[in-house]
Amino acid sequence: xxxxxESSSRSNAGNSSSEASMEHVxxxxxxxxxxxxxxxxxxxxxxxxxxxxxxxxxxxxHLCDSVGLVLKTMPTTSRLGVRLFxxxxxxxxxxxxxxxFWALKPAHQISHLESWIESxxxxxxxxxxxxxxxxxxxxxxxxxxxxxxNYPADRLETxxxxxPNPLNHExxxxxxxxxxxxxxxxxxxxxxxxGGVLACELAERGIDVIIVEAGxxxxxxxxxxxxxxxLRDLYWQNGTTVAxxxxxxxxxxxxxxxxxxxxxxxxxxxxxxxxLDAWQASGVLTDRGHLETAFARVEERxxxxxxxxxxxxxxxxxxxxxxxxxxxxxxxxxxxxxxxQRAAACAFGCPSDAKQSTNVSxxxxxxxxxxxxxxxxxxxxxxxxxxxxxxxxxxxRNTGQKLDIHADIVVSACGAIAGVPFLLNNxxxxxxxxxxxxxxxxxxxxxxxxxxxxxxxxxxQGYGLYELFDEGIMFEGAFxxxxxxxxxxxxxxxxxxxxMARYDHLAIFxxxxxxxxxxxxxxxxxxxxxISYWLSHRDAQKMVKGxxxxxxxxxxxxxxxxxxxxxxxxxxxxxxSALKALSKPISPWRFEAAAFHPLGTARxxxxxxxxVIKPSLETHELDNLxxxxxxxxxxxxxxxxxxxxxAYATMVAEQISERLNSS
Length: 663
Description:
Layout: E1 15-16, H1 34-47, H2 60-72, H3 76-92, H4 94-97, H5 106-117, H6 122-140, H7 143-148, E2 172-175, E3 180-189, H8 195-203, E4 209-213, H9 227-234, E5 242-246, E6 249-250, H10 273-282, H11 288-301, E7 304-306, H12 314-326, E8 330-332, E9 334-336, H13 362-368, E10 372-375, E11 377-385, E12 388-396, E13 402-412, H14 419-425, E14 442-449, E15 463-465, E16 473-477, H15 482-488, H16 494-500, E17 506-513, E18 519-523, E19 529-534, H17 537-556, E20 559-563, E21 571-572, H18 575-583, E22 625-627, H19 642-662
Parallel strand pairs: 2-10, 3-4, 3-13, 4-10, 5-19, 13-22
Antiparallel strand pairs: 1-2, 5-6, 7-9, 8-15, 11-12, 12-13, 14-17, 14-20, 15-16, 16-17, 18-19, 20-21
Helix pairs in contact: 1-3, 1-5, 1-6, 2-6, 3-6, 6-15, 8-13, 8-19, 11-19, 12-17, 17-18
């Protein structure tokens, strides 16, 4: 392998980012006309009736413009799916009322809407949930609604980043200024937990690195306050990525500089020993001591530490109270934070830069170490020659200008979902690619407490219960702003508005289960990933066990009512009734779940007959092509995976730099 030529020096290429990288490109909303517009407007009126507890009327123009913006940036297939759901829902009322939904009287609209929400058919519940996910946040985000539910709408105005945007750097190129052809030693696709860390560790070892990121760079001064906008800006497919199956499960993923680390809650775990033992026994973990050293390095660099008591409150205080009464193990969780101001907006980007996501840590460190970053460029081709990866080709997502990079080593750090069709499109044929998907499915309980909770005065995922950890069940605190709390409640009409009116009394706590690898990612229409997942009865029973314990904790802490995430038994007003409901057989179809940690679709293996990549993270099929993201893990971790991904990236950086330096 050759060293970088003079023409590939790390000086800036194209136009420097600075203000240009933060430039906002206006989006024209998808036009909502005719029956589709009438249906969505009628749904909004049925969800928030004008005579209910929340008296703020629906702003139809704001509704259609905001929903139109989301639809505009969706993949075409997802947009068609929304229209299909809306059409079937609207026309289904013809069977009973001889009129489409939008033409019904208000009382009949609410009745029809509730019949879908409470249906025994999972597909109907999934369809109406998808439609209401578009509608509910648009209304609740309005300032008048927030004030009516006693939410401090201006609470983030005094929270600001600690310093200038660290991505404003001469080696961050957001606009190509024409077609470019460049040379480097390592080209990395993606800037999250895998790509960002690998780029930094290599650059600091003197390796010439280029990072190519499909998402844009954003200034953290804009983070946190407008969740609907941040879904468009920071999330892949507007946060509408869904695994189809039993049941349908959303999997929100990041697409921005920093990847999903920018929009996660910063919870940090090492891979549990029981998982490492299994990997060691199967031969995919060959140097455990090296991995432990990498864990320690990541923890030190990101200031990973338990959440301080002064940053806890809200739901964490409620859980601590209940767990203490029951004698359960509980306490603060480790997070990657520095000088946290408790914005509680982690899922929409940290407005104070306290969360050490890679957009404020490893990627800026990589730039200072000499790496180059190209943002808003989507890679579509891995160049190959004689069975080796030799570079990549991408295009700027706004201008279409071409970026052609020749590299000694290419790294896919696209994630366990987006990485699959990308690698398939580039000729990888290993039969395991896309299979063995685990997603760490999660669910939650919402509790209506007698005293004010003020959930925003807490650190999201800052507190946990440890009692069932060794059984693959972990509990983490939760907080979501009112826009998305409304989605968490599978209700409409008076049931929803009465609950939202008590928003400041609501506590939310979640649980996740270590799952069987029952999912698969295929290459779908337009090259987009098509995700399927089948929640097993065994994993559903784990969820039930976790919900039993969480019910006990909430009622011990003084809950008046809890809301279970299971169709048909949501509202429970006593512990006895909750435990009785949870003791009956519960089909996996009835769960309302979400997932945030997709893993395993390009798993490590000793032999190509067992997986896609070697323990060194180089692919079995193509030399000099590495995969460094959540897809590499051969089993579910049972914990939040970002530190595990970062540790592997740290470890493989040493191996790659040694290979390049020795050549």
